[in-house]
From TrEMBL:
<protein>
    <submittedName>
        <fullName>Uncharacterized protein</fullName>
    </submittedName>
</protein>
<keyword id="KW-0175">Coiled coil</keyword>
<feature type="coiled-coil region">
    <location>
        <begin position="30"/>
        <end position="106"/>
    </location>
</feature>
Length: 128
C-alpha cells in the first residue's frame, strides 16, 4: 500500500509536470498569437489609411473626370460648329467659283461678239 501510494504520488508528479508543460506551451502560444494579432492590427490600420487615401484620390479623380467630360462636350460642340462653318464656307466658295465661271463665260461670249463685230467693221472699212 505504501508502494501504491508512492507510485500514485509519482504519477501525480508526472501529471503535474505534463500539465505545467502544457500550460507553459499554451502561455507561449498565447503570447505569440497576441504579438501576431498586434502585427495584423497594425497592418490593418495601415491598410485602412491607404484605403482612405485612395478613396480620396478616386473622389478627386471623379471630379476631374466630370470637369474633363464637360470640357470635351464644350470642345465637341465647338468642333461641330467649326465643321458646319467650314461646310458653309466651302459652299460659299463653290457658289463664288460658279458665279465667277459664269461671269467668265459671259465675258468670253461678249468678247467673241466684239471680235466678230470688229472683224465685220474691218471688212466694211476695207470695202470702203
Amino acid at each position: 500500500s505504501i508502494k501504491t501510494l508512492e507510485s500514485s504520488i509519482l504519477e501525480n508528479e508526472d501529471d503535474k509536470l505534463a500539465m505545467a508543460a502544457t500550460i507553459g506551451s499554451a502561455l507561449l502560444e498565447n503570447k505569440f498569437l497576441k504579438e501576431q494579432l498586434t502585427i495584423v492590427e497594425n497592418k490593418l490600420a495601415c491598410l485602412q489609411c491607404k484605403l482612405a487615401s485612395n478613396e480620396a484620390k478616386i473622389e478627386g479623380m471623379a471630379e476631374e473626370e466630370e470637369t474633363f467630360l464637360g470640357k470635351i462636350e464644350t470642345l465637341s460642340q465647338k468642333l461641330a460648329e467649326a465643321e458646319a462653318q467650314i461646310e458653309k464656307e466651302k459652299k460659299n466658295v463653290m457658289e463664288i467659283q460658279n458665279l465667277s465661271e459664269d461671269h467668265d463665260r459671259k465675258q468670253e461670249h461678249i468678247i467673241e461678239k466684239y471680235v466678230t463685230k470688229s472683224r465685220d467693221l474691218e471688212k466694211q472699212l476695207l470695202v470702203l
